[in-house]
Amino acid sequence: MPGKKNTNINGIARRWLLTSLGVILVILVVLILVLSMTVRGSIYGNIESILRGRSVELTNVFADYGKRSSSEFNSTARNYVENFPGKENMELMVLNSNGEILITSIGFVPDDTQPMPDYYMALEDSEGYGVWTGRLTSGEKVMAVTRVIRNTTGSFVGAIRYVVSLEQADHQVVLVIGFLLCAGALVIVLVVASGLYFINSIITPIKQISAISKRIAQGDFGVRILKTKEDEIGQLCDNINEMAVELGKSEKMKNDFISSISHELRTPLTAIKGWAETMQEPGIDPDTCSRGMGIIIRESERLSGIVEELLEFSSMQSGRMTLVMNKIDLLAELEEAVYMFSERAKTEHKFLVYEETPMLPPVLGDVNRLRQVFVNIIDNALKYVNEGGTVNVAATEDGNVIHVVISDNGCGIPAEHLPNIKRKFYKANQTVRGSGIGLALADEIMKLHNGSLDIESHEHVGTAVTITIPILKQDEKEEGNNKGDA
Predict the structure, then answer these.
(1) In angstroms, what is the C-alpha Rg of the chain?
(2) HAMP domain: which residues (predicted)?
(3) Do residues 428 and 377 touch, judged by C-beta distance below 8 A?
(4) Backbone phi and psi for residue 322, each to the nearest 5 degrees, phi listed first
């Protein structure tokens, strides 16, 4: 039914009930059983101790009697029973030498059908003592203690038997067990209440986190989890909120990238289509046709470069980017990249200055990839430099590495954008053409060369990009030579 709450116990609560609560329940049951047995043993032990103490009194009572004949014992025993002070709490019996009951403290006719295992135990015991706990023929539970009296020659002259009802004692044991059960039930209630409160304090935010995570997975990156506690769950909330922020930024960058790359593709396609249609018109003069063909070729090359960059980026993302490592002259590749942009710089009325270096040690690298890095960085520098601006290119040796610095006096990068400038799809200036993956690609290529790409920029001042690559080591040179000889 709609709106009906799910009352089934499942998940964390169910596991807790089956584990923690189950263990606690077993412990409580065992504890109650042990305490009940201990209390019962203690009460029964006290009763037996009292009865034993009473039987020890017989040693003094019959110190001067019962040593010559059974008749003397009978007389003394009757007197002992008649004057026994504890008649209200226990029954006292006198047995003669034949095991017959002579007299009892209750005054009724003795019942010879009652079981007396304690009497027979006392006959066999070296100290003449026997104890028995059991039920009479009436069903009453009793404890009986018998003390056998012997004369100086060791002959059996009679016995005294004490019998105490255990009904009251068992009632006390039941009361104690009931108290323990109530205490155990109270403990379980408290444990369940505190446990459910604790579990609810975990399950509620987890359900909230689950619901918010689902919304984030569906593309709602603006939603946030309300943090209520400064604990592990609170940290999880912070992490998910941060993840949502980053995903939102990535989604925005992706959308900007799609928009940017669509524009980048549309512009040359529009030019190609327009000039192709123009060249189809009848009577077009050769100069216009030549000019149009040149534009079509340049825009086609531009399209090819964009597609190539996207393919390279795809290889980088999937981890399939590979390098063909060889001993190369870095200066030659840098000069080639500068020469590629010299004509463009003149056309755009910008200055591309290359500070020539006489000679640099060789490096181990992929010629095409390193040239791609130089091209991307110089292209970026020219894009962000205004007419009349300058782009400087220089290379220097510094210890075991070579630094290639490409600097400009363009608009610079705002400080808030600088930390993210090498992230994929990120563009600090959306008005300038480009896909936003050139720097990310160049940075990845330099990492694969065990080098680095560092950017320093100040807004309205300019930007300097430092490309660092290790110099080819002597052992790498020898290895390369050996391969060449082979």
Answers:
(1) 52
(2) 200-252
(3) no
(4) -120, 155
- 0.85 exceeded by pTM: no
**What dotted CATH number matches 323-485?**
3.30.565.10
In this model, does residue 455 exceed pLDDT 80? yes
Distance of CA 105 to the CA centre of its chain: 75
CATH hierarchy code of domain 232-317: 1.10.287.130
The pLDDT of residue 293 is above 60:
yes
Q: Out of 268-272, 301-305, 388-392, 459-463, which region has the weakest mean confidence (pLDDT)?
A: 301-305
Could you tell me where the DSSP H helices lie in 225-363?
Answer: 232-280, 286-318, 330-347
User: Integer distance in angstroms from the first to the last C-alpha of the chain?
Assistant: 81
**How far is the C-alpha of 83 from the C-alpha of 89, rounded, in Å?**
14
Q: Is the pLDDT of residue 79 over 50?
A: yes
Longest dimension (CA), the chain: 164
* Residue bearing tokens 């890095």: 373
Q: What is the pLDDT of residues 2-22, one digit of tens each?
A: 444 444 445 666 777 777 777
